[in-house]
Amino acid sequence: MSTTLLHAGFLPLLDSVLLVLAKELGFAETEGLALQLTRETSWANIRDRSALGHFDVAQMLAPMPIAASLGLTPIATKMIAPVVLGLGNNAITVSAALWEQMQREGAVTDLEAGPAGAALAKVVARGGKKLRFGVVHQTSSHNYELRYWLAASGIVPDRHVEIVVLPPPLLPEALGAGGLDGYCVGEPWNSVGVAQHGAHIVTTKSKIWEWSPDKVMGMRADWAERNPETVAGLIRAIYRAGEWCQQRENRLAAAEIMARPAYLDLPVDIVARALTGEIDAGDAVFTLPDFYIPHDGAANFPWKSQALWYFEQMARWGEVAVSADSAHLAAESFRPDLYRAALAPMGIALPEVDYKREGDRAEGYALDGVAMGPNRFFDGGVFEARVG
After folding, report:
1. How far apart are CA 305 and CA 320, in angstroms?
2. In 3D, which of 257, 204, 180 has the Cα closest to residue 16?
3. Band of the pLDDT at 1, cuts 50, 70, 90?
4. Exposed e or buried b for every residue in 275-306, given b needs 16+ CB within 10 A?
5. CB-based contacts of 300: which residues, under 8 Å, 6+ apart?
6. Mind listing the domains of the chain with CATH numbers?
7. Under DSSP, is residue 184 helix (H, G, I), strand (E, B) or coil?
């Protein structure tokens, strides 16, 4: 078998794990791919270097290919996401000072999004210094989920809370230095904030929107069209990495790989928290099996309905005008057709539909022979949209 060199960009985040495992455990090599991984420092760099062709593929924020296809990026080019890098993994963390204020307003350490938001709303209503929260990028699940949580809690983003952008590794330091009151970021940077800066995790992505996507493998649409076999091989490698990582007995080994200097360069015990679901919120440890889901519940399937949810958030916050054309572009950014085609030779059960309702399932359920997880929004919202 000939070998194809594949340049891939990633950020030092826990949910680059499937890309890293595809390389380190030989899943990519089995597909004839020689993965060359480049660690970047910011999502803006990932976005722009991918658009310029410096990377063939990259770990991307789930809304990033959508934004690029809609022309919302400096170097507008159509991008696609044919595979998702797992579900969950981010959280909302606040400073010790803000947590004390929230406690005075009734907050308790239970990670539930509703009560935490209600306590924060009371802090905001008292007036005083305008709070500042950090996110990793404007077109990120972190930004949209933070805004969703704030708005559903009665807090108006931008008016009541300032939201600024910083690269993930800088958020704990900025909070520790007093420049931020809180942030929304993927692991391990919530745990770093707790361990090194006295921060407190108040809620998690899995509590705001259960079993929802955070990162994807993104690539230019024209590159994917020219390299269909390479794309299919990468999808299979990521799928197998997800299968391996989903096994509980493999989680510590995955953490040890991710802790290496080339990837996260952090103590194994901090890296392991998200992988094992043992989350230290600051004054209590919680077992959250669904904090990060690398494979189960069609975790790697790129649902067009979820692309449209992110599109709706972009429209809600004034980033894009809603039209039939823009909705179509957003939906076309997620490519379940490529996912199915790549995995067809493996003979596994896959969703036969591209859209599903979000927010209507409190328990797991079966869809087209696939065991799915719950998908509730913390405020009881339900989202259903499709195009075409």
Report:
1. 18
2. 257
3. low
4. bbbebbbbeeeeebebbbbbbbbbbbbbbbbb
5. 18, 83, 84, 85, 86, 238, 239, 242, 339
6. 4-86+213-264+296-358 (3.40.190.10), 90-208 (3.40.190.10)
7. strand
- Our separate counts of H helices and E strands in the chain read 17, 16
Q: What does each C-alpha distance from 242 to 16, 189, 373 come to in angstroms? A: 11, 22, 16
Look at the pTM and tell me if it is higher than 0.85: yes
For residue range 230-281, what is the model confidence (pLDDT) as tens digits? 999 999 999 999 999 999 999 999 999 999 999 999 999 999 999 999 999 9
Please state, for a pLDDT cut of 90, what percent of the chain lies above it. Answer: 98
Give me the amino acid identity at 308.
Answer: L
3-class DSSP state of 371: strand
Q: How far is residue 229 CA from its own chain's centroid?
A: 26
* Residue pair 99/107 in contact by the 8 Å Cβ criterion: yes
Please report which confidence band the pLDDT of residue 166 belongs to, taking 50, 70 and 90 as the band edges. Answer: very high
Which pLDDT score is estimated for 387? 85
